[in-house]
Amino acid sequence: MERKELLNLLQKCGHYLHHQKGKKLGQYRILLILKDHPNLPQSDLLEWLHIQAGSLSEILLKMESNQLILRTKDSKDKRRILLNLSAAGLEKVNILIQEYESENEMLFSSLSDEECLKLYELLARLYKSWKGEDYA
Predict the structure, then answer these.
(1) What is the mean pLDDT of residues 18-42?
(2) Would you put residue 73 in left (φ > 0), alpha (ψ -120 to 50) or beta?
(3) 115, exposed or middle or buried, with CB in 10 Å at 0-12, 13-18, 19+?
(4) Which of 134, 123, 129 is nearest to 13 (CA)?
(5) Which domain holds residue 92?
(6) Is residue 6 part of a domain?
(7) Please, are residues 51 and 66 in contact by the beta-carbon 8 Å criterion?
């Protein structure tokens, strides 16, 4: 096997994951964060996600119009916006968690637990070397 074949296969895997599994990730990540962190200031969420303020505002507007989140002004500091899940948002995130776990099982169903562990270790080592980090 040539290394270019390996790279080609990694690119195909990345493409598949991005286009088949990555579509829900933006809102899904926000729902997960808000599930674990009620009354989260919007500015904190912006820092966690590492995206532009305008992009976050657009996503939150869509989520609010779909009644997944609630945005309220902080009673102590009216400039701060606090984010919470609505009842529909909590229901949605719980459904998404179940779907995500089921999809993960299916993605790796052709591998044994040992093979999954070995694949993880190899990919982690490869990724860290690309990032210039020591692998320990």
Answers:
(1) 86
(2) beta
(3) exposed
(4) 123
(5) 15-110
(6) no
(7) no
